[in-house]
Amino acid sequence: MDDIKIFVAHRIDQNSELIPNRLYVPVRCGAVFDEKNPRGLPGDDTGDNISGKRMTFCEFTVQYWAWKNVEAAYYGLCHYRRYLLFTDRRFRTNVHNMVQLRGFLPHDMRRYGLLDADRMERIISQYDIVTSEPAPVCRIPTPEGPQKTVRQLWDAHDGIFFEKSSIDLMFDLIDELSPEYSGSAREYVAGGYHRGYNCYVMRKELFDRLCRFQFPILFELERRLDMSGYDTGMKRTPGYVGEMLYGIFLHHVITRERWRVKEVQLLFIDDMERAENLKDWICKLLRCLTFRILSPLVDMVFPVGTPRREIMKRLFRR
Fold first, then answer.
1. Mean of the per-residue pLDDT values for the chain?
2. Is the backbone of residue 47 left (phi > 0), alpha (psi -120 to 50) or beta?
């Protein structure tokens, strides 16, 4: 089988579950700020790295570290609570076209096929790209109501996750630094399907191209942006723009080139906190049951994508 490494970006401020699967490589995101590392996980702070940009680049610090320091035939990226699904079974999806799991219990690993490395290997080796299924924009709620195009979806979050001017700057930088993607970029944002979340597995050649497209633009965007007045959420603008660039890159290679592409469902897990003892397990079970019972009500009162939901999430985390 080909050498496949799927890097899982783990937050340093959360004790999240690890999936015991030989294809997954857990990496501490922003490890330069993590002095303890009780589980001995590798970090993104060795070799050529941008670990110090964790608060602005998010999981892209892990992607950059893998690009510069690890050799593989296939490179993948996912998050501590987002995983690509390789099962034959189809699951119900939410408005973002993700399979949403309210809490995470041990049997869920097997149910969603996260332990079956052999099956994952067989599927991945047949394709050049494995990515998540795109989400219809018209289903995704926004602070300004339903939208029709990807650009309208982004614009509807102006002043919440990023400033609209950052998107315009991104297009200027694409034209300046990677003009071969300019047509695809404008074609993608005029369409009605959103490709996001930075979860994928790609052949080395494509992964290298993705990084060479994203990082020069992100570094220059960070240099030109004045983020001094941004709150914690808005400072993640480079991370959000990196996700936009990921969607543009996928659209380009899928529609304008000939690659073997497989789209699979994407699992999103609300609570991935790890249980260390019996007390933790009881608390985890109670949290899981609470999530699954109360979440439908919370979604009604605090709709996904609205400013009041973001405020509620920040208060809940505190």
1. 92
2. left
